[in-house]
Amino acid sequence: MSADLSWRAPLAVALGAIAGALSRYYLTLLIAARLGADFPYGTLVINLTGCLGMGFAVTLMAERYPTAARCKTAADDWLFRSLHYVFDLRARKRIFV
Q1: Chain segment 42-83, per-residue pLDDT in tens
Q2: What's the pTM?
Q3: How far is CA 46 from the centre of its chain?
Q4: Under 8 Å between Cβ of 24 and 46
Q5: How many C-beta atoms lie closer than 10 Å to residue 43's C-beta?
Q6: Rounded CA separation 97/95 (Å)
Q7: CA-to-CA distance for 97 and 93, rounded, in angstroms?
Q8: Which residue among 37, 39, 57, 89 has its CA within the 20 to 30 Å range from the CA of 1?
């Protein structure tokens, strides 16, 4: 990275974080005002929207770039193995307790 660009990346990340945090906060308030504050509907809606967006982005990258498809497969395999390990560990704890 050149010395000229060293301050631009952190600044871009900071500005993106500010915009994202503020939009998430105000959207949560708006959803809570409409649906009630008994359950964190705003957080649920925002997280589901983010998951949908990430799934869409990964699918597009997997279709356009073969390397991304291999990474997606590796990530899926890692997630499957991790979840299998966690639930298997819980099952073993139930047997011994």
Answers
A1: 888 988 998 888 888 877 877 777 665 566 666 667 777 776
A2: 0.54
A3: 10
A4: yes
A5: 14
A6: 6
A7: 6
A8: 57
